[in-house]
Design a protein that fits this description.
3 helices; 66% helix; mainly alpha; 73 residues; 0% strand
């Protein structure tokens, strides 16, 4: 469910004219703040920062297309 929420959040960011390319950078910073101390992903209800970044990158073309279509850049 968290991955679905991340996907919808990314698409909604793009539709609201926030640059979706910033999302992976947010998770990179959050991962750095944990300094590797985050629990193992299989023990958590949330994906790791690394998994989220990978997923955002998979969805990015779609999100950027929405952003460019709906927002003056």
């Amino acid at each position: 469910h968290e991955s679905e929420a991340d996907y919808m959040g990314l698409i909604l960011l793009a539709r609201a004219c926030f640059d979706p390319r910033e999302a992976p950078q947010l998770w990179e910073r959050m991962g750095q703040q944990h300094g590797g101390r985050a629990p193992a992903e299989f023990m958590s209800t949330h994906p790791s920062a690394e998994t989220r970044i990978e997923q955002f990158n998979q969805w990015m073309d779609e999100a950027v297309a929405i952003y460019q279509k709906n927002c003056s850049i």
